[in-house]
Amino acid sequence: MTDIPTLERTLIGAVAAAADEAALEAVRVSALGKKGSVSELLKTLGAMTPDERREKGPLINGLRDRVNAAIAERKAALEETALAARLAAERVDVTLPLQEGPQTRGRIHPISQVIDELTAIFADMGFSIAEGPDIETDFYNFTALNFPAGHPARDMHDTFFLPPDDKGERKVLRTHTSPVQIRTMLGQKPPIRVIIPGRTYRCDSDQTHTPMFHQVEGLVIDKSSHIGHLKWILEEFCKAFFEVDQVKMRFRPSFFPFTEPSAEVDIQCARKGGEIRFGEGEDWLEILGCGMVHPNVLRNCGLDPDEYQGFAWGMGIDRIAMLKYGMPDLRPFFEADVRWLSHYGFRPLDLPTLAGGLSS
Questions:
Q1: Taking a C-beta distance cutoff of 8 angstroms, is the pair 132, 180 a contact?
Q2: For labelling alongside 171, which of 13, 28, 242, 317 has CA 20 to 30 A away?
Q3: Rounded Cα–Cα distance for residues 37 and 42 (Å)
Q4: 172 and 297 both lie in a single domain
Q5: Are residues 123 and 80 in the same domain?
Q6: Dist CA 20 CA 250 (whole Å)
Q7: Are residues 293 and 170 in the same domain?
Q8: Which residues are CB-neighbours of 143 under 8 A, at least 6 positions away?
């Protein structure tokens, strides 16, 4: 017969020494499992005489109960220790600032932001968006826009010419977004009210010029549009874009092959402390060119200039972004520097609206 007190001390010691729940389970199986030491003692009760059963039964059953109780107590202690360790490991210090997630750390490029702002402003005036290819034919980029072959006005554009194709025609990287005006007039009937944001290309590079840059042009064609409408649209645009209550603008005569009359537009500003502020001051800053669509351009698009007339304007998106947001150099726009983008970029969920603020 096994020495019950000795077995009890051994089992209780093993329970107390169990370092984790897996070790404790191994002790339980070795003691109370189907072939455990306590279970084997319980099996001997059936072969005992009644007197022996009355004597040994309480001892063996008591051993089982005390081992069970010790295991339960140790299990509770181990669970409490594990919970305390988990709480300590997963503790959150609520006094620390919340770390930004990837959705809020990302930034919208200023060019994308300004295009969204332009879209919000002109959509409120009833304009739609028109787009076209970056690679254009000579007809769309020059001829249809009243640039005759060999005309000196073509020298105004430092053009990237592509190698001749099978027909000997040399396509170009579009020097302005004006070809989309031609495609729009050829593809739909007036009235037309569109703006055309997009990439353009010219062979030029310095602090304020890059070989690839962005323009936005506007076009209105109908039977009664006139230069007074053009002036109102540009004034309302400048007030909304630069977020000022009033602006002063002046129109200076200029020349563009595709408009007649043509004008350069200056906006009143003040230069203070290295900043340019609009809606105040005594200085002037050129921001765009505009004019009434040339009758030859209308004819090239199949429109009768005696029935239809219209106006157009164009400006550099990169330039107005620099003016509005105080960026001194154009070249970092295209250098993919994350530090620059984190400084000048915009939060992705703050979509510009006229009601909520363009740049809030």
A1: yes
A2: 317
A3: 9
A4: yes
A5: no
A6: 84
A7: yes
A8: 149, 300
Q: How far apart are alpha carbons 290 and 251 in whole angstroms? A: 9
Q: How far apart are CA 252 and CA 288, in angstroms?
A: 11
- Residues 83 and 122 grouped into a single domain: no
Total structural domains within the chain: 2
C-alpha pair distances (Å), 324 with each of 61, 233, 343: 88, 19, 15
d(CA 55, CA 45): 10
- Please work out, in degrees rounded to the nearest 5, the angle formed at the alpha carbon of residue 296 by the alpha carbons of 291 and 299: 120
CA angle 117/121/126 to nearest 5° reads: 140
Q: What is d(CA 250, CA 281) in angstroms, rounded to the nearest whole number?
A: 14
Going residue by residue through the chain, which has 360 residues, state the pLDDT in tens, using 9 for 90 and above: 567 788 778 878 888 888 888 888 888 888 878 777 877 777 777 777 887 777 777 877 777 888 888 888 888 888 888 888 888 888 877 787 777 777 777 888 999 999 999 999 999 999 999 999 999 998 999 999 998 777 765 665 678 888 888 888 888 899 899 999 999 999 999 999 999 999 999 877 665 667 888 999 999 999 999 999 999 999 999 999 988 888 889 999 999 999 999 999 998 888 877 677 777 778 888 889 999 999 999 999 999 999 999 999 999 999 888 888 888 888 888 888 889 888 888 888 777 777 666 665
Residue 41 lies in a domain: yes
Could you tell me the two tokens for 226? Answer: 């006139």
- CB-CB neighbours of 193 under 10 Å: 19
DSSP-derived 3-state class of residue 140: helix
Pinpoint the alpha helices (H) of 153-279.
178-187, 227-242
- Domain carrying residue 264: 108-344
Please check whether residues 85 and 122 belong to one and the same domain. no
pTM, 2 dp:
0.68
Q: Is 260 annotated as a binding residue?
A: yes
- Asked if 188 contacts 291 with a C-beta cutoff of 8 angstroms, the reply is no
Give the domain CATH number at 262. Answer: 3.30.930.10
The full DSSP string for 276-290 is: EEESSSSEEEEEEEE
Longest Cα pair distance anywhere in the chain, in angstroms?
A: 130
Q: Do residues 15 and 50 share a domain?
A: yes
